Amino acid sequence: MGETDFAARYGFGRREVTLANWRTAPFSRWSFQNVAEIVPSAIRAPADPRPEEPAEDPALLQAPLGHGGATVADHLAAHDTDLFCVMKSGRVLADWAAPHADPALPHLVFSISKSLTALVAGALSGISGASAAVGGPFTAILFQHEPTARMRSTLAVSFLLGSALSTIGLAQAGALDWSDLRAALAWVPFMVVGYAASGRLRRRLAESGMRTAVLAFCVIAACVIVIRALAA
User: Does one domain contain both 223 and 121?
Assistant: First the structure.
C-alpha cells in the first residue's frame, strides 16, 4: 500500500506512527492490526480456521442508545472502535467493522490482561489501604505510563472511592471510633492546600516529571510501610 493510499484509508501517514503514540487514536486504527511491525508480538492463529457463519441478528447494532437517537453502530463509529462482535452460545449474533479495519487480519488483544492486572492492583490497593493506610502505590504503578491527565483523574477517583469503601468496611466491622475521625479531620486542611496548589503545579510538571513523581511516591510509601512494620 502506497503512502497516499495509506493516508486515505487511515487518515495519517505511516511515518507518523511511533512507539509514543501507537496505542492512541487515530494511530491505533493501523497499529492494532499491525502491531508486529512496532513491537515484538505473538500472533495467535484461530483454533478453528473455518470462516464464521453470517451474523444471525445484525439489527442489534441498530438498537437506539438513550434518548439521543444514536444507535449502537453510531456509538462504535464515534468512539474509535475497530471491530465489534456480539456472540451467544458460540453463535455470532451481530458484528461490525470500521471502514479502516480488516476482519480477516489479526487484531491486538490486551484488554483481558489489563483488566486482570487492574483487578489485582485494585485488590492489593484496597487491602493495603485498609490495613496499612497506604494503598496508592499499586494503582499508581499501574497507570505510570498513561497520559498525565488520565493518570491524575483516574487516581483521584480511585483514591476517593477506595477510601470511602475502606471507611465503610471498617465502620461496619467496628474498627472505627471518634478518635479515628478526629485524626482524619486533622488532615483535611492539608488536603485543601494540596488541592489548591495542584492546579498551578500540574502546568509546570512535564509528562516525564509526572512519572518520576509517581515512582518516587511509591518508593516513599514502601519505606513508610517497612518503618511501620519495624516499629510495631
Answer: yes
Domain range for 127: 111-231
| DSSP sequence for 146-207 | S-HHHHHHHHHHHHHHHHHHHHHHHHHTT---HHHHHHHHHTHHHHHHHHHHHHHHHHH--H
Alpha-carbon distance of 100 to 16, in angstroms, equals 17
User: pTM of the prediction?
Assistant: 0.48
Q: Is residue 202 part of a domain?
A: yes
Kindly state whether residues 97 and 174 are assigned to the same domain: no
pLDDT per residue over 33-91, tens digit each?
998 888 887 777 777 777 778 889 989 898 888 777 889 899 898 888 999 999 888 88
Provide the residue type at 71 as one letter: T
- What is the number of domains present in the chain? 3
Same domain as 76, residue 35: no
Give the whole-angstrom CA distance, residue 29 versus residue 11: 9
